[in-house]
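Hi, here's the filled form for the chain we discussed.

Project: internal
Contact: R.S.
Residues: 106
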Amino acid sequence: MFLILRSCTQSMDVAPRSAFLAAIVFPNERTATMGVINVVKTASQSMGPLITGLLVERNLFWVAFVMAGSLKASYDIGMLLLFAQHKPREEQTEDQQHAEENERRR
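And the returned structure, exactly as it came back:
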């Protein structure tokens, strides 16, 4: 059962994240948004070995695995909950699109 659950959320942050962002973000903002997300993701990944090293020094290596699993699961569930309510731009009505554009301009 755990193998099936893992395969369902294995790479939630790769293609689905890009598709969700492409559907929500305006076309002229996509490049900047994807760039910021990739920079933040890379910076966050570089902290992993440092934190794991500190935990290993204190004989708490297991905490690294618990933290990694918890963060991954919460990220995937958060992505699902955040984007489950949003419709792609193609499915939104024209009034909704105009309201969103006016709100972003403010």
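Let me know if anything looks off before we file it.
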